Amino acid sequence: MGASxxxxxxETMFDRIAASEELPTIPGVALDVLAMAKRANVSLPDxxxxxxxxxxxxxxxxxxxxSSFFGVSAKTGTVxxxxxxxxxxxxxxVVLGFSILPKLARAGRQSTDMRLIWNMxxxxxxxxKVIEERTRGRFMEEAFTGALLQDLGMLAMVAxxxxxxxxxLKTVExxxxxxxxxxxxxxxxxxxxxxxxxxxxxxxxxxxxVGPIGGHHRPxxxxxxxxxxxxxxxxxxxxxxxxxxxxxxxxxxNVLRCVRLFADYFCWPPTFVxxxxxxxxxxxRQVAQLLSIExxxxxxxxxxxxxxxxxxxxxxxxxxxxxxxxxxxxxxxAETLQ
Length: 338
Fold this sequence. Notes:
- By secondary structure, the chain is mostly helical.
- It has helices spanning 3-19, 28-37, 44-51, 55-65, 79-86, 88-107, 112-134, 140-149, 152-160, 162-174, 180-188, 192-202, 207-214, 227-248, 252-266, 271-291, 297-307, 315-324.
- The radius of gyration is 19 Å and the shape is globular.
């Protein structure tokens, strides 16, 4: 695909996306909550009143508050109590993530390409939550929602220009060392991070989520915004690598990408990666039960394929260990535990 064609697609992509009827949108209640959050004197009881207008969303938040998914143990009986327990910042992330997640799941049933992206989004969201839980444990809700939405731009591009985006997906599948955002830029003249930021900006999504999403393949670009945004972008990038490892398979390049990011960002030894992926299975099932969504059989089969590998015996993992020169005795990064 030539540069002129890429430029033409880039120039029309945003218009196509704005006109697309297939793209998931944020429900009115969630939009109202996001708008309220911009007020200086907003209160959680006020937000709870708005959430109460959507019984399904309110029920999901109550189930969350009475589950262990985000580390909540004590029982609560009202949405207000649940949101107060979470706090404003985490509540916004939960409302946003829980509102759009069922729509993303439905979009994933529209085509094979959308199902792939949906599977990656679900894997990324759970991976990011578990990474944050096992490191600092401060922004698990933002990590979950940020990772859930980080590939929203990919869904938008598939919906707006499926005849062009299929070439991107084929290239990434054929060359596991290729980075998807770079392939997008070459073929389409725009990447999914830019499209995602465009959409989330239209929806008034908080900057603490939009910023890391906009830099989740290039975290250094987020560094000027502050350490928390920069670190969340790194968590999102690592979670994306996990989802690609599972959805595209444990090739040398996909394993190496995971090993390097986990070692560089969290000082986790390569042998941790297989056990980390293995631990995702119960978490994914818990999310599915908590939010009443279906998890496809092919996704679970791909998970099983990766977790069946032995990080000490497999040639793929041995090669990753050799190329990184990593030590299996490395411990957690102290900075991530602060």
